[in-house]
Amino acid sequence: MTSSELYQMFDSEQFRSSGHALIDLLAAQLTHELSGKAELIHWQPPVEAAQSWQQPMPEVAELSHSDFITWLQEEILPRNLAMHHPHSMAHQAAPPLPMAALCDLVAALCNQAMALYETGPAATLLEHQAIHWLTTAVGWSHGTGVLTSGGSQANLTALLAARQHAAANIWQEGVTAAPPLRILASELAHYSVKRTAAIMGLGADALISIATDQQGRISLEALKEAHTACQHRHEPVMAIVATAGCTATGSIDPLQAIGQYCQAHGVWLHIDGAHGAAAVLSNQHADKLQGIHLADSVSWDGHKLLYMPATVSAVLFRNTADSYLSFAQEASYLFNDEHGEETDFNLSYRTLECTKRMMALKIVAAFKLYGRKGMASLLDHVFALAEQFAVMLSSTPGFELLMHPQTNIVCFRYHGNVSNTAVLDSLQVHIRQQLLHRGLFHLSQVEINNSIWLRSVFMNPQTQPAHQQHLLQEIIAIARARA
Hints:
Layout: H1 3-8, H2 12-34, H3 46-50, H4 65-76, H5 98-110, H6 121-138, E1 144-148, H7 151-166, H8 170-173, E2 182-186, H9 191-199, E3 207-210, H10 220-232, E4 237-243, H11 255-265, E5 269-272, E6 297-301, E7 313-317, H12 360-394, E8 399-401, E9 409-414, H13 421-437, E10 444-448, E11 451-457, H14 465-482
Parallel strand pairs: 2-3, 2-4, 4-5, 5-6
Antiparallel strand pairs: 1-7, 6-7, 8-9, 9-11, 10-11
């Protein structure tokens, strides 16, 4: 290519005109989805859908800039799940704040690597600001942490610190240098906790699952018994993991009691607050997380109830020194701060990632644009939606509620006149598939106590009780048609 052609690839005027066209397209799509008039999902089995994507890599340009916008409009957007649609109720992924999405555009073009302060000065300071706000909200005066690409990485980072805290030589000498370490967590804990145990070389069996009560909360008595049993076997418990909003049911473990127990026995407490930690911002719901300040570490996903575009998560530490335990490694080609003055600003000391996205911009911007009260109002609304839906289910014949919602997640099932367990489970699967394949509603399903339940996660502030009532009507119709 000629120099002129290379320059055209970075032409600012072309970026401007294409950007305007793209924003117009996305704004129209956003309006269409929020109104509920957009198609929720155009379902195709993945093997069938993949056929139309089997194309050779282009040797030369095959799209003009205007063709590119048309391609997005005709080929990409219609094949997406409409995240801002009020019938999207399946998972904890947020319909992101549009202004936060614009921040991701800024982050992408500026492309700050953030391994060191010098490779992302403003990005680093923004992250410090965001982390300070989040740790203060948790209840810590001198907490710290870093942003990560997802809650699984946040949990891994926290539990690596817990492992190092329990066995100081393990980073250098390996797991054989320590006695068999154990992690205690709820039977409803996120799969990333068991995966972390395996990644760390402890083995997946190092995670000991603790029974829960009828509300999906970890049993304190069962936790104590498991801890005592580990002590008798000379198996140190490197961490107890409590959950603030478990993925399956949204249940919140008794954080205060667990925190007091951990402090009394000198055990690291990690709270997986990926979903529910945002409740600390709410005047209405902060008391549900009473005791979260007793944790040694907390994970918190911004792309859930902070309504950020995926992915941005925080791993927070109560003590600054603990935040350096996860990665005890030297790399002179990066870290050459002889006097230690910049240590806290070189984020690669404390994160798995070297090149790291400018994630904090969207968090800081959202709080500046809407304030704590505005951000909390999003959570308050969807928690209220879950309460309303639970009441609706309880008063509608044929439906069964698994438990009263503690967050914005509601698990339920339709039984009609069915009593056979296997048939009842099969019915739930059929209902969910029909709702999805016909593009009516997007729900998920979960297995609790060997039974299949439908799972609705209310993330969209545009969802209203009328949509919930419509959902119940469609479920009844699908079930009757199958009978």
